């Protein structure tokens, strides 16, 4: 046993070093953002496409109150309840003091300015494909919004989900996987892919997940249980969503379905956001949804 002890120590130390390396927070290359300047108007379009107000404004906020991003909404899941943080430009409890790179690390890598992992309730696995210019434009727009002095509330999680370092292993398995739809795409399909897979993060809700909470890309947009425990989130691939592209685009603008029903639940604020985008963007989303592989 005494002879085996040094070897066991070496194996343990090597395993610990490998774990520490795999779970280390990764950051974006700063040179990706060098020389970029932000535009408020473009940033507002990114803001609505990314659905920032849907999570970070107060629940049921409307009108100008949707631009007060003090957080606080609760999002239940199998792992606990997550609370949306304050992302207003308040310099003390919001993100007013963040740099563009710090926002990019949060959005695209799920890493805080302090170097801690964020929980993937924040859809950074989708935002990872965001264009650097869009992040810069979004920061410019966010900086013009009203500061909210409400401190962020803590998530309601139990052990071991309180150990953020473990999220590095989750990211190693499930994050930064690139685009789902590959191939020689038209400009319209590329725009639709960008809006659906990146900024719009549609797959975060409409794609089923495995036991560890990773998106099942083999069933992309194939529908999923509602994390809140009531009902399901629908399959929006051509296997179930049989509307025409024109019907889909109209629904994304108005919330009215071809069956004379209206969008409700969490989809209602999504429609409000998408209605603020150019018609070409909604048409691109519709074209993507007609082209994505069907999931039975």
From TrEMBL:
Pfam families: Cytochrom_C. Residues 38-146, 187-293 form the Cytochrome c domain. Keywords: Heme, Iron, Metal-binding. It comes from the Bacteria. The keyword Iron applies. The lineage of its organism: Bacteria, Pseudomonadati, Pseudomonadota, Alphaproteobacteria, Rhodobacterales. The keyword Iron applies. One of its GO terms (molecular function) is electron transfer activity. This is Mono/diheme cytochrome c family protein. InterPro entries: Cyt_c-like_dom, Cyt_c-like_dom_sf, Cytochrome_c-type_DH. SUPFAM superfamilies: Cytochrome c.
């Amino acid at each position: 046993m005494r002879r085996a002890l040094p070897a066991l120590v070496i194996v343990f130390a090597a395993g610990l070093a490998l774990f520490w390396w795999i779970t280390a927070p990764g950051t974006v290359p700063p040179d990706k953002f060098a020389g970029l300047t932000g535009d408020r108007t473009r940033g507002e379009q990114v803001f609505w496409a990314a659905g920032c107000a849907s999570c970070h404004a107060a629940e049921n906020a409307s009108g100008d109150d949707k631009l007060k991003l003090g957080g606080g909404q609760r999002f239940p899941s199998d792992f606990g309840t997550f609370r949306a943080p304050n992302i207003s430009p308040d310099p003390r409890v919001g993100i007013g003091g963040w740099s563009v790179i710090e926002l990019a690390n949060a959005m695209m890598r799920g890493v805080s300015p302090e170097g801690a992992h964020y929980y993937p309730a924040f859809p950074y696995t989708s935002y990872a494909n965001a264009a650097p210019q869009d992040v810069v434009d979004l920061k410019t727009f966010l900086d013009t919004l009203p500061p909210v002095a409400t401190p962020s509330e803590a998530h309601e999680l139990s052990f071991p989900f309180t150990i953020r370092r473990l999220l590095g292993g989750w990211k190693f398995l499930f994050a930064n996987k690139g685009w789902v739809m590959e191939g020689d795409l038209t400009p319209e399909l590329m725009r639709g892919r960008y809006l659906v897979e990146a900024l719009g993060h549609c797959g975060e809700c409409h794609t089923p997940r495995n036991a560890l909470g990773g998106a099942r890309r083999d069933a992309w947009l194939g529908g999923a249980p509602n994390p809140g425990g009531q009902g399901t989130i629908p399959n929006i691939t051509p296997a179930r969503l049989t509307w025409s592209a024109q019907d889909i685009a109209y629904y994304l603008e108005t919330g009215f379905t071809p069956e004379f029903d209206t969008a409700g639940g969490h989809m209602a604020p999504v429609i409000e956001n998408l209605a603020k985008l150019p018609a070409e963007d909604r048409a691109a989303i519709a074209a993507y949804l007609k082209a994505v592989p069907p999931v039975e």
